[in-house]
Amino acid sequence: MKRILLSIFTFISMLSAQAQTCTPDLTLTKTGIFPPGATNWDSVAVMPIATVGMMYDEVAQMLAPADTVIDTIIGGSPIKITVTIDSLWLFDFVGLPSSMSVACNTLDCFMEGGDHACLRFMGTPTTSDVGNHIVRVRAAGVVSSPIGQLRDTINFLMSVEVQATQSVDEN
After folding, report:
1. For the chain, how long is the longest CA-to-CA vector?
2. Sign (positive/negative) of CA torsion 48, 51, 160, 20?
3. How far apart are CA 64 and CA 31, in angstroms?
4. From its phi and psi, is residue 86 left (phi > 0), alpha (psi between -120 and 50) or beta?
5. What is the mean pLDDT of the chain?
6. Between β-strands 116-123 and 56-63, what pairing exists: parallel, antiparallel or unpaired?
């Protein structure tokens, strides 16, 4: 009986280890999405270049903001309000190369404000994927404010470039 339980425990542990998508970098102190090498260009997080026919497996780190300032109108006057971010849900990756997928370390890419997270980009690009892909990461945000709870959809931009396979000519 002990051997059966040990075998079951070992099997479940192996499945859990394989299901680990990525590990968030808990040392991040600046909010945003950070690709490997922390390359950002004009508010676009630039992922490393992918090559046709070669497995792509890259992880971007993320620190969700705990609060932010929003512009709103109250009583006909524009004002700025500091709000607490309750949650973010990354629900769509529009423009991702067709051969790639994205997985988060959290269930359904859901996180609370101030959480560390990571996004794992995986796949083997095909020739139809060649080019620069601007990926619009769509996130549903919920914030608490002095005027109540507010919901909005936020967009983050990322870039994934897929290049053709490089060949070497011998003379």
Report:
1. 77
2. negative
3. 6
4. alpha
5. 86
6. antiparallel
DSSP state of 107: G
* Secondary structure E strands in 35-99: 40-41, 44-46, 50-51, 56-63, 67-74, 77-94
What is the four-CA torsion angle of 106, 108, 133, 165, rounded to 10 degrees? 70
Q: pLDDT by residue (tens digit) across 56-67?
A: 999 999 999 999
DSSP per residue, 121-149? EEE---GGG-EEEEEEEEEEEEEEETTEE
96-107 tens-digit pLDDT:
999 999 999 998
User: Which sign, positive or negative, has the C-alpha torsion 123, 12, 17, 114?
Assistant: positive
- Let me know if 74 is exposed, middle or buried by CB neighbors in 10 A (0-12, 13-18, 19+): exposed
